[in-house]
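@channel anyone free to eyeball this complex?
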Amino acid sequence: MAALRKVFSAVFVMLLLLISSSALAGSSTLSNGYLSIPRIDVDGYGSMELLFRLEFNEQYLLVLEDAVETSDGIENSGVFDPVQQTIDVDRVELDDGKIYSVQLLLIQNDEQIIFSIADAIHLNPGETPSGQTNGYEATTEALALYGAQCSSCHGVNGAGLAGNPSLIACANCGNESALSNYIRDTMPLGQSASCDASCSDVLADYIMGAFNSTNQQVSRETIGFIQILSDGETLRRAAQQLVSRLPALDEFAMVSTEGDAGMRKAISGMMDEDAFHLRLSEIFNDYLLTDKYHSRNGSEAAISLLSSDDFPNRRWFDPGKENRGENYNAERRATNDGVAREPLELISHVVRNDLPFTQILTADYMMVNPLSAKTYGVEGLPFSSPSDANEFLPVQLADVPHAGILTSPMFLNRYPTTSTNRNRGRARVVFDLFLDTDVLAIEGVRPGNSVDITTPIPTINNPECSKCHSLIDPVASVFQNWNHKGQYRPARLSKYGWYTDMETRGFNGESMPLAGNVDSSVQWLANQIASDPRFPKAVTRIMVNGLTGKEPLQEPDSATGSQAEVGAYIAERTQLNDIQSRFVGDGYRLKTLVEEIMMSPYWQADGLAANANAVAHASTGSSYLLTPEQLDRKIVSLFGFEWKRSLDNYYKDVSNSSTSQLNKIFRQIYGGIDSDSVTTRLKSPNGLMGAMQLRMANELACYAVPRDFWSPQGERELFLFVNHDMSPYDDSGALDESIMTRVRQNIQYLHVYLLGEELPEEAEELLISEQLFMDSLNRGRQLILASGGEWSDIALPGDCDVTKELNGTLLYEKDVRDDRLREDRQYVIRAWMAVVAYLLADYKFLYS
Amino acid sequence: MYRRQFLKYMGSSGLGLLLSRQSLLAQEAVPDRFWISVNAGGGWDPTYFVDPKGNRPRLDGRGPVNNYSVNAIQSAGNIRFPSSYPEDIDPPDANSPGHFANFFPKHASRLLVINGVDTQTNNHDSGSRYVWSGKIESGYPSFAALAAATTAPSQPLAYISNGGYDNTASLVAPARIGGGDVFQKLAHPNASRPTADVEKRREYFAPSIYAGIEQARMARLQRLKSGSSLPLKRSQLDELLMSRVGDNNLHKLVNLLPDRVSSGLEGQAEVATAAFASGVAVSANMHMGGFDTHGNHDQNHSRRLTELLEGLDHLWAQIELKNLQNKVTVVVGSDFGRTPFYNDNNGKDHWNVTSIMAMGAGIRGNRVIGATNDHVEALKVNPQSFRPDPNGIILTPEHIHLALRRMAGVPVQLSSQFGISGQELNLFS
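replying in thread with the prediction:
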């Protein structure tokens, strides 16, 4: 090796390297940090195989590790340029299947021969299944029809052209018949009459055969590498995500005895709980953002959006400044939130009653609670209590053509309009949220880069503009009866009517029939969307994000996406298409969608087989950083209290939301949103969030551990096997094995209770936790010994001791009683605090 | 041309996320230019201080614009202001740094006043949005967010917001910090009373024990990562490990805070300047409300303005203390202005014409540009001299923001993504 290195070094110095540029290129590989080049011919030395080690030192460097003789039978792999001192490596194959042509530049040639990477060019883009027909033989008629009707948008190979969707694993590609119907009814956009039923049958057959015949196979193969969670872990994750609690014993039993059917039953039961509906609201609010008007952002943030002309009783709770009673503020906020949460409550109502989820758009009613009902001037609804702000009932306002969320004053105000915008903003949101279509991704020139002031009506007559506007303007026009304040004001009754220099009302290239729809056009639109196959896809996208912390994979760029990336997309999309089909097939029942997502291997993934392609599974799995709201609820479910201040002060803080660390002080620092200007959650922890996790773990350990020890055995959550006076050392200083057994049992239990980690007695993780317990105990005892038993070393830290009951009752009365827990002479309590603080900062505690 | 993608692959192909993160961080320069937006929430009355009109009765019989004497209007350099307050209110303490007679002489040389800015609205939401983003439509980032995104988009504290219009359009993650306590808490996670003096600070765990816990936590995360075959989980554990490495800048920031962080604007100023000096932040929103004085305008507005000017005075003192006067630009504004007459409650309602103040790096001070007439209607001004010119232009927030974006070096790509149409004017220098 040394001799060859010397020779090779000399070769570079003497510029003796000669490469036959006419030879066919062989493939080099970059894998596990090494670049292997199979053959370079060196004049006078023969053929050599080179091995470079990849290093990083401000930039990526390739250090020559080995150069060995190789046979002439192997193809040449590159070209050496003696003047530029570069090697052009023709093909470098990466683990993920991508192929690059790479140019290396010699930057050091002494003891080590080192190259940098001067350039890299991607080769053979888009070698994907999309380009293959997989044995499918297309008819001449199909090819001709596809070429004439489809390829200008979807591309010859079905992979889609910029801004237009791919047909590979497309939303409608799960079922040929449904695909045919969809084509017949809507395609080509705006010219659906040009493709009748027979045309659409031929095209559906072609699209399924040419572009989708291998989807199921790709999906099966990809999913086959996924190792899934145990039943217990799956159940725990489901309970945590859906209802922020631990699974109940009967749920464990159900799963244990009935397997998958039991799991479905348990999940289904969780979805009947109020906690699920709270989570559902969060999931949808992350998209709708109507909580902008929640009283957190202003006591009357929602009420103030309602016109007193329309709703003269909107501030019914205010008898005038002088006459306000003690309930004034509570009623004001509850009323506001009844108004603000109306669209989210509609979603909850639809799901709770197993109604078709399309009703979130088609409902000809809105939701009110007893307080917001008064604001809207509604009387006589059968509420079970006149003051229960959590009870919502449907209601129809007189002369208002409701269309679910689309006509909610909150939705319309959250996405307002202006005289120049003309509801286009609303249309964009409708496409995005309910049709999973990003109209801004459609190609075309937009103001900011260029403004067309010469075409009479650019949005109709300038092709650059109409590409997008022909899609959104008809939908924007549909909203013409709802003004910028979200009030129902039919355009035909206004002085100037609706704009004439704009596309008329319609959807998907179809004009809205005026008969019966003139004043209720949004209802017509809602029904159109409800029957569009993109609607279930859009709902699936939202729910997948809510249950896995990330949206479904985007289709890889057809030019640069690797085969592995395309395969990952096809596999996941095919799974989701199946899931969507079951959702639609079950009458758009959202609970079915949730169940199906949670039963899928993607959601239950725990690991990969050793030979799996990591790139194809880069985002497989459903663990995500818990939101501040979820983490807050998890703490409550495990400890019985919120993370506020010390528990001695909890009675003061219990109803004071401003003392909530996760819902107030750290809410936005920990990635939360206010639905107003901060609308995107942080999903990866930054330094501040990492620091907050440590503080939370330390504080909670301090609050919870002494309190739990202080509580009677039957009321404890954390310490079922030990007491605070159970030191592992006996009076003589020897280890008491009977106590140690209890310590080990409790550590094992804490791993299950706090982390959901079921470990056998001999597990290394339990030994490590035990070691931490003992180390902390021993160090603490030494500190006490060293100080001669100073009170400051014996006493628990001030915020951790227990001097009051949770309701504020003092535990000490002079000469009467002293039930406080303040001392820790054996350092046992603090050693347990150390173990709990260690576990609470763990990945398994912080991530779903 | 695919070098970047190729390198990206190598960074994630088993070579360790750490390397790629280091290289990413290396590309992000340590900020050395800083921006502060100070928002007077509710709509201030420029005629009360920087665009003074005095108590001369209006010709249309709607009374005076202000209740202080015309004769009280003075100048400090070129900055005009009333040196006294209306007679029927409790004036601020004569020694207050927020008293007009103290503030303007002290700061006039560095102060730029832009009068006659037409916000074209009297709605709080749209006014605030327009003044701080340069667009009346929703969805545009505040200038401070754009500035942060220009320099250090991945710094967790690049953009500190204390409220007001702080839309980021998801360009940066805004850090909404309630007060200095939050930093103390995060910088000292083992301290039970992090804001107490060091000698009185108690810890949850003795230092030697806490070191053991910390070590155990990191080792556990490493073990979980090594034991996981799921790429998603491994990358999440990588991120978690990175977030725990310890942020020295956070400690630096805390060390630069006063022992007791003040309340209100002054506290916001202390945190913002400490964050600048420690290199973790690029921009900050300071915010105070209370300017929506529909009733008892003179008294209430006087108190708010005093508080605002005291805050600005303190801000400048902090900037000088940290030797940042050549690096920090301060812009002060409000939703809109207030009516040039009083309502029946001695209050003033919303008015679309307002003023902007600026000081600090890049600002040529001792100037008043733009103008209003006696009825506080915006006058057209010459786009070079900014003096009244019937053939000139009306200044709007678009002009302010185009000039700010240029001063901050906001890249064309970013600027055009959130395009503002209008004429670029040399307003600040």
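from a first look: The longest helix of chain B spans residues 297-321.
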